[in-house]
C-alpha cells in the first residue's frame, strides 16, 4: 500500500513537473505597421504565458515563414526592447522562404529585459519589399527545431505558446504618379498602379504645400478598373487650378474594406494663361538683372540682348522650355564674356509666334 502511494506521489510530482515545464511558454504575434503596396512592415510582439517561472528574455531565435511570391528581402526596420544593455545588436536574418528575429543575451541572470504576461512587448519591426500586390502576406510562425528561446539564466527553455500568424492582402502598388499642365491652364494628374487587388477606387487631393492641409477634388472615388494583378492607368483633370500657382497632388486609395491610404504627393506649377515677357529687376542695374517670362505651353524660346543700334550683344536663352514661369539673368557682358558699357539695351523674346521686347538700363 505504501509502495502504491509512493508511486502515485511520484506520478503526481512528474505530472506537476510537466505542467510547470509546459508553462514556460511565450506567445507571439504580428502587428501591421506599414502596408502601402511598396513596403510591408510588421511588428513582432511577444508576451509571457501566465503560470511560468521565467521572467526575462535570454537568447532567442524567433523564426517565421512568409509568402515569397508576394514579399522578399525581410530586413530589420526597428529594434525595440532587446537591443541594448546586456543584449548585442538585434538582427533579422533572411533565410529565403523564412526569416528569423535573433536575440543574443550577454548579461547575467536577472539582468535581462522583463517579458510581461498581460501586455505585449515589441521585439522588432521587420520590413519586406512588396513583389506582387495581388498576393497576401501569409506570415506563419515556425515552431520546429529552428525555434529557440531561453530565460536570461541561460538554462530555462521557453517553448512557443500561442503563435498568431498574419495573412493580409498587400494593397495596390503605385508604379508612377505625374502631373502635367495644359495651354488652357488645367492640370492633368495621371497615375499607374502595379495591381488592383483589394482596391475600390481613388480620390485626388490637392494642397498649396507638401506639408499643408489637402482638399479632396473628387466628389466620389474614381472606380478601380477591377480586381486585377495587372494594374491600371488613371487620369484626372483639375480645372479649378489657377495659372502660375504651384500645387501638390496626392492620390488616396480606398480599399474594398473601407481602409484608406495615400501615395506620396507630386508637385506641379500650373502653366500661365498667356505668353509674357516681364520687366527686369532691378532696372537700372549693376552688375546684373533678372528677366522673368512665362510660357503657357512648351516651345522653343530665344531671348537676346541688343544695343540701341540693333546690334546683337548676347544670347540669354536659345532652347526648348517647358510651360511655366521662368527667370533668366543678364550679367552685363557680351557673347565673348566682355563687360559692356553703360547705356540702354533691349531684351527681345521669341517663343513660337509670340514676340516681345523690354528696355533695360545698365549703369556702371
Mean pLDDT: 88
- Topology pattern, helix = H, strand = E: HEEEEEEEEEEEEEEEEEEEEEEEEEE
Radius of gyration: 34 Å
Q: Say how many strands there are.
A: 26
Q: Which shape, going by the Cα principal axes? A: elongated
Percent strand equals: over 45%
**Sheet with the most strands?**
6 strands, antiparallel
Structural class: mainly beta
Total domains, how many?
Answer: 3
Query: What is the terminal separation in angstroms?
Result: 123 Å
Quaternary structure of the protein: single chain
CATH architecture of the largest domain, by name, is: Sandwich
- What is CATH's topology name of the largest domain? Immunoglobulin-like
CATH class of the largest domain: Mainly Beta
Secondary structure: helix percent: under 10%
Poorly predicted runs are 1-22
Describe this structure as you would to a colleague.
With 364 residues, this protein is mostly beta strands. The protein folds into three domains: 2-163, Immunoglobulin-like, CATH 2.60.40; 174-269, Immunoglobulin-like; 276-362, Sandwich (Immunoglobulin-like), CATH 2.60.40. The protein is built from one helix and 26 strands. It has one helix at 2-23, and strands at residues 25-35, 39-48, 57-65, 71-79, 91-94, 98-103, 121-130, 140-141, 148-151, 159-163, 174-181, 187-193, 199-207, 215-216, 222-223, 233-238, 246-255, 260-262, 266-269, 276-281, 289-295, 299-306, 312-321, 324-330, 343-351, 354-362. Strands 13, 14, 15, 17, 18 and 19 form a six-stranded antiparallel β-sheet that branches. The chain has a five-stranded mixed β-sheet with strand order 4-7-2-1-10. Strands 3, 5, 6, 8 and 9 form a five-stranded antiparallel β-sheet that branches. The N and C termini lie far apart (123 Å).
Amino acid at each position: 500500500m505504501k509502495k502504491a502511494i509512493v508511486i502515485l506521489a511520484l506520478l503526481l510530482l512528474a505530472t506537476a513537473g510537466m505542467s510547470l515545464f509546459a508553462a514556460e511558454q511565450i506567445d507571439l504575434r504580428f502587428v501591421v505597421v506599414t502596408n502601402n503596396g511598396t513596403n510591408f512592415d510588421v511588428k513582432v510582439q511577444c508576451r509571457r504565458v501566465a503560470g511560468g517561472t521565467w521572467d526575462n528574455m535570454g537568447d532567442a531565435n524567433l523564426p517565421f515563414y512568409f509568402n515569397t511570391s508576394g514579399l522578399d528581402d525581410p530586413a530589420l526596420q526597428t529594434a525595440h526592447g532587446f537591443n541594448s544593455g546586456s543584449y548585442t545588436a538585434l538582427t533579422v536574418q533572411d533565410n529565403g522562404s523564412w526569416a528569423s528575429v535573433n536575440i543574443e543575451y550577454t548579461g547575467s541572470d536577472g539582468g535581462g529585459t522583463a517579458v510581461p504576461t498581460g501586455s505585449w512587448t515589441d521585439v522588432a519591426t521587420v520590413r519586406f519589399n512588396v513583389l506582387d500586390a495581388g498576393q497576401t502576406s501569409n506570415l506563419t510562425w515556425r515552431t520546429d527545431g529552428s525555434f529557440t528561446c531561453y530565460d536570461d539564466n541561460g538554462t530555462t527553455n521557453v517553448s512557443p505558446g500561442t503563435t498568431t500568424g498574419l495573412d493580409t492582402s498587400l494593397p495596390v502598388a503605385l508604379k508612377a504618379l505625374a502631373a502635367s499642365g495644359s495651354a488652357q491652364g488645367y492640370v492633368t494628374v495621371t497615375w499607374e498602379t502595379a495591381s488592383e487587388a483589394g482596391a475600390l477606387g481613388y480620390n485626388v487631393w490637392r494642397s498649396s504645400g507638401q506639408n499643408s492641409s489637402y482638399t479632396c477634388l473628387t466628389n466620389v472615388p474614381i472606380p478601380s478598373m477591377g480586381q486585377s494583378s495587372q494594374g491600371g492607368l488613371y487620369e484626372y483633370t483639375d480645372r479649378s487650378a489657377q495659372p502660375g500657382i504651384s500645387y501638390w497632388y496626392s492620390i488616396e486609395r480606398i480599399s474594398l474594406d473601407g481602409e484608406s491610404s495615400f501615395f506620396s504627393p507630386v508637385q506641379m506649377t500650373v502653366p500661365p494663361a498667356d505668353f509674357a515677357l516681364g520687366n527686369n529687376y532691378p532696372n537700372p542695374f549693376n552688375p546684373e538683372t533678372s528677366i522673368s517670362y512665362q510660357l503657357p505651353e512648351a516651345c522653343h524660346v530665344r531671348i537676346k540682348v541688343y544695343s540701341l543700334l540693333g546690334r546683337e550683344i548676347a544670347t540669354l536663352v536659345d532652347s526648348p522650355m517647358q510651360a511655366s514661369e521662368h527667370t533668366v539673368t543678364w550679367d552685363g557682358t557680351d557673347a565673348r564674356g566682355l563687360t559692356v558699357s553703360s547705356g540702354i539695351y533691349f531684351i527681345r523674346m521669341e517663343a513660337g509666334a509670340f514676340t516681345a521686347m523690354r528696355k533695360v538700363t545698365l549703369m556702371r
